[in-house]
Amino acid sequence: MLRNPVERLYSEYLYFRHGTPQLFHQRVKNIIRETYDCLKFNTLRHCLYTPQTSNEIRLRIGVYHQHLKEYFRVFPRNQVMVIKLEDFSNNTVSYMENVFSFLDISKLNRTFLQKISDPSQHANKRKAKERKKGEMLPETREMLENFYRPHNYILAKLLGEMFNYN
Known about the structure:
This protein is mostly helical and about 170 residues long. The chain has one domain. The chain is about 65% helix and about 0% strand. The protein has helices at about 5-15, 20-40, 45-50, 65-75, 85-90, 90-105, 110-115, 120, 130, 140-160. Helix 2 (about 20-40) packs across helix 10 (about 140-160). About 15% of the residues are buried.
């Protein structure tokens, strides 16, 4: 399950690091600089899998195409189901039915699926204290979108245009 990499990164930061948007911005600047410095002498794979000093910002996770290529080296494409979190969240029951079908397992009763997929019962929500910190700074978002843009294009070529987060 993939999520817009920019949104995923900020959500993870707020959930686990409890920092401010300003601190997030500084840490993103640092990790992007470190990543580009690494890429001057190494492969993308090396730079994503080698721990960096700014490891509290896991920029590497959102470079989905690199991770998926690792799966596809081991498993045939038709044995890997990839879905978008955004679509799953908007239509959970249908996606769960698709997952059951993909796995060739018995489907659950639709009424039961609706009950267990009720987001008000299970959704990960930011705590009020975290919501007060606010949204990501626009300049941080722009920096991250610029970083992920070429990777999102590669992801779209790998999985289809619906996975182009640009």
